[in-house]
């Protein structure tokens, strides 16, 4: 990592992975009977409302985090790690074509950093498959017996920009010729720091920001990638 001077920052869910690691982890924990079946049923209910245009994606995301926080309390860390390994391995090839190309190209001369709101256990397993140099995910507190307390002690989605700033400062890395890719508004905080920001399959809020800031936008539909280059900033 020390020999690489440039940095590339990737969101994971909806950017590399076609789905959501946090959802897949919760689902796996239900099948392993670590979480109750009712937990998944409640999440599917909210997810279904979004699919049916009766609710918002943000409401689904908030519910996912809340259900996980509520049910992680009292669980053994070993079980979460076991579930994370299964999910990461099973979904390793389910990535976007553009993400695959960028990962192969940039890892040659960039410090590769992944930032996700998903739990650190699943982020770690997933990021290591793709040879990331560093990774950040939500950290849930454990006691001396490695049992989760239900408290959250670190959430990178609150300010992904701050996470990047601290990382580059601690590792003496320049943001010159840096690259960043994300799909939601929370990614804007680090996209605004890099020289080459890319809004990929952006949600409505990130799309507005990208158009205003004149960032490159890419949309992948099936096996076709469409690129948009806003030619002027929107006031």
Report on the structure:
- The protein is of the alpha/beta class.
- It has one domain: Rossmann fold (3-Layer(aba) Sandwich).
- Helices cover 43% and strands 22% of the residues.
- The chain has nine helices and eight strands.
- The chain has helices at residues 21-31, 37-51, 57-72, 77-90, 97-106, 120-129, 160-170, 188-191, 204-213; strands at 6-11, 110-119, 134-142, 148-154, 179-182, 196-200, 216-221, 224-228.
- Strands 4-3-2-1-5-6-7-8 form an eight-stranded mixed beta sheet, sandwiched between helices.
- Strand 5 (179-182), helix 8 and strand 6 form a beta-alpha-beta unit.
- Helix 1 crosses helix 4 (77-90) and helix 2 (37-51) runs antiparallel to helix 3.
- The radius of gyration is 18 Å and the shape is globular.
- The model has no long low-confidence stretch (mean pLDDT 94).
Relevant terms:
235 residues; alpha/beta; Rossmann fold; 8-stranded mixed sheet; 22% strand
